[in-house]
User: What shape does this take?
Amino acid sequence: MKTMIMETPSRRVLYNPSIKDKITFIRTAEESHDAITEIEVELAPKGGNGLHYHKSFDEEFTAIEGNLGLEVNGRKITLKPGETAIAKKGEHHRFFNPSDTETILFIVRITPGNTGFENCLRIAYGLANDGKIGKSGMPGIPVMALLMEMGDTGVTGGIGAVVKPFFKLIARRARRRGLELELLKKYVF
Assistant: This one.
């Protein structure tokens, strides 16, 4: 099955059927000299991601069309078009579309820009389109460990503390086996 990445030569538009979103890279870390990664997200009704955090960048969310649901450090908020909220480094957060019927549009700004996070998205969305993720929307553990490290993304809750040291070890082994380069060649370069 061919990867369904709708793209310009710089792989700007990606679709993920698992979390029901389409993203467009407006500005990449490379284009902004690492100042920002800016992404437009189109999110289907009831779509969204799970709670997570990042250690090296902040994530700013601005609703453009429709209401955007956010959870930041246990507090749920709804952003109306034109409103903005920020998940700072280390804050547990997720985004979601609270509507049953309306697709929403919002902008995510990551500061500083992060090429690893961009590549993580390209790989994760490519895997989702190639049917290489489980029913939970997650790839296998070696790939998941690599993506979490590449995208500077941590798992929240008690499970996060348990899996973090194992994921570092698993990612290192997967990298030595050439899995990271294989994924980068297929979905990024």
